[in-house]
C-alpha cells in the first residue's frame, strides 16, 4: 500500500493516525501501559519480528511517545517508558477496548478486562459529550475546516 | 510487514485493531460520519487509489461497519452508510482527534474542529473514568486476563 503522509493534513484525526495509525504501534503502547519496558519483553508479549519491533520503538521514541532510560535494575539494558504524550493515548486505547468488548466477542466468550485495581470494577463507558453534556452520538455535529 | 490476525486474541484492543487497525479504515469511517456515501466521493475526499478503497469498503461492509443501500436519489449508484457498529466508533475517532489537537499542531496552526452544530462548541475532553468517577489516568489499573 502506498503511504501518503498526512503530516500536513488539517484534520487532527489524520495527523494522529500518521503517528499511531498502525496496529503494532498501538499494541506497543498498550504493552507500555501494562508496565512492559524492555525490548525482549515487548518482543515476547507481542510475538513481533525483532526488526519490526525495533523500527516501531525507534519511531515511537522519535515521535516523543516513548523515552529511553537506563534499566531500573542497573543492568546494561535500556528501558522504554511512556512520556506524557504517550500516556495521553489512554482514551484511544480505552475507546478501542470498549468497542472491541461490545462487538468482537461471542456471547459468553471471555475477554481480558481493564479494571480499577482498587475496586476491581470496569471503567465507565467512554461517551463523547457536547459542552452542555448531551451524548455526541445523539446530536448533529459539524466539522469546521481550518481556513 | 507480516500480518498476524488477532482475531483470537482475548484482548479487546487487539481484536478492535484487527478490524479497524489501519489508517485508511478509520479515515473511511471518518468520512462516513461526515456524510460521505458514494464511492466517488470517498475517492475524491481521501485521494485513495480506487483498488485500495474498493478493498477497504468491502472489508468494512463484510465486518458490519458499513452497509450498502440503493442511492437516495434513485440513480443506479449504491451508497454506503454506517451501521450502529460503525457509529459506535465515534469515541475512537473523538479520542484520536483530541490527541491530535493536543500534539500534532504547532501553536497557532489551524486545525479542523468537530463541533456541536447547535451551539458551535467543541466536545468535552474524553476522559476515561473509574466507576466512582476518578480519572483513570490517575489511578492504578489492572488487566485481568481471560481464563
Written account of the structure:
The structure is a homodimer of 147-residue chains. Chain A is built from six helices and four strands. The first copy, chain A, has helices spanning 12-20, 23-33, 39-46, 50-62, 84-87, 90-103; strands at residues 66-70, 78-82, 113-116, 141-144. Chain A has 147 residues and is of the alpha+beta class. In chain A, strand 1 (66-70) and strand 2 (78-82) form a beta hairpin. A two-stranded antiparallel ribbon of chain A has the order 1-2. At the A-B interface, helix 1, helix 2, helix 6, strand 3 and strand 4 of A face helix 1, helix 2, helix 6, strand 3 and strand 4 of B.
Question: Which short descriptors sum up this protein?
Answer:
homodimer, 147 residues, alpha+beta, two-stranded antiparallel ribbon, 6 helices, 4 strands, 40% helix, 12% strand, globular
Note the quaternary state here.
Answer: homodimer
Largest sheet of chain A: 2 strands, antiparallel
Helix content of chain A: 40-55%
Number of E-state strands of chain A: 4
What is the rounded distance between the termini of chain A? 30 Å
In short, what is this structure?
Two copies of one chain form a homodimer. The first copy, chain A, is of the alpha+beta class.
